[in-house]
Specification:
The protein folds into three domains: 141 residues, Rossmann fold (3-Layer(aba) Sandwich); 71 residues, no CATH class; 38 residues. Helices cover 39% and strands 17% of the residues. α4 crosses α5. It is globular, with a radius of gyration of 19 Å. The N and C termini lie far apart (48 Å). The structure holds adenosine-5'-triphosphate and magnesium ion (MG). Adenosine-5'-triphosphate binds next to α1.
């Protein structure tokens, strides 16, 4: 059981020690990591993924439930409590989507194969172009692959910690992902350039020059702002879907969507 992870400071790109004492992230919590391009966001979640022990370029250390994780937890993929989905994540098995999920569900000893159908349905809530159960995982697009793996991590995977590196760029419907994830009871860390995702998470980590500069907690005004931005985001999303479908924006469309 993972109750929390604790991050201890390392060094930034200039070799200066990070100034926080430690950061504790609890089970079920949502976290975003924000900061300029190249500021070390991916490096930070990679430290979490690797359960770094001062052995990465950042020199950070990550503890689980206050303890140094056993080698088995660090190095045995089956024992690993963490799943990371990045822009480059791909499935390399010569399997259909259905077979791929079935194998995972069986490995997790989930007897009811209904979960396979539900996972594909959930993934299809995240993406535009639908995934079919007989599509080979190797031919899924980048966005479809990430959608499938997020749905798989939520519904089938045992990992209590999910790390997502810039899912917004995959054309994934992010509000669906964030809503669902907030109810999944997992710790989810979003590396993001998206203000809506950043405002929807409870904790915000700000990066600069490879170091953690600040840790902020979501305030009431931000929750309100996030709700408003979601409305706006939905409008942008609707327009995006119209354009993707080859339609033109008409007065009727505006009357319905911008009322
Ligand atoms: N504390 C650090 N010490 C040394 N190198 C670092 C540190 N943090 C990050 N780096 C290196 O700096 C480079 C950029 O970092 P990273 O890829 O994490 O940035 P990013 O914030 O994810 O950028 P982007 O928004 O473009 O994805 C990488 O090569 C990374 O290994
Ligand atoms: Mg990055």
């Amino acid at each position: 059981m993972i109750k929390e992870i604790t991050i201890f400071p390392g060094i930034d790109k200039s070799g200066r020690k990070e100034t926080f004492k430690y950061i504790t992230l609890k089970a079920g919590e949502t976290v975003s990591i924000v900061g300029p391009t190249g500021s070390g966001k991916t490096a930070l979640i990679t430290d979490i993924e690797l359960l770094a022990q001062g052995d990465t370029s950042t020199r950070r250390r990550v503890l689980i439930n206050g303890e140094i994780p056993a080698d088995e937890i660090r190095y045995n993929p089956a024992m690993k409590p963490i799943v990371m989905i990045t822009q480059n994540t791909k499935c390399f098995a010569d399997l259909t989507t259905e077979e791929f999920l079935q194998i995972h569900a069986r490995a997790r000893k989930i007897p009811d194969m209904k979960v396979v159908r539900e996972t594909i349905e959930l993934a299809n809530n995240f993406t535009g172009e639908k995934i079919k159960s007989d599509t080979k995982v190797t031919v899924l697009s980048g966005g479809q692959t990430r959608s499938l793996l997020i749905a798989d991590a939520i519904l089938i995977g045992a990992a209590p910690i999910i790390l997502l590196d810039e899912i917004e760029n995959a054309g994934i419907f992010k509000q669906e992902v964030v809503n669902l994830i907030q109810n999944a009871g997992k710790m989810v860390v979003f590396v993001t350039h998206d203000p809506v995702i950043a405002l929807l998470t409870r904790i915000r980590i700000i990066m600069e020059n490879g170091g953690i500069k600040k840790v902020l907690h979501q305030n009431e005004t931000e929750i309100w702002a996030a709700q408003n931005l979601l409305e706006l985001d939905k409008k942008i999303g609707n327009v995006r879907e119209e354009l993707r479908a080859g339609k033109t924006i008409t007065h009727d469309f505006l009357a319905v969507n911008f009322a």
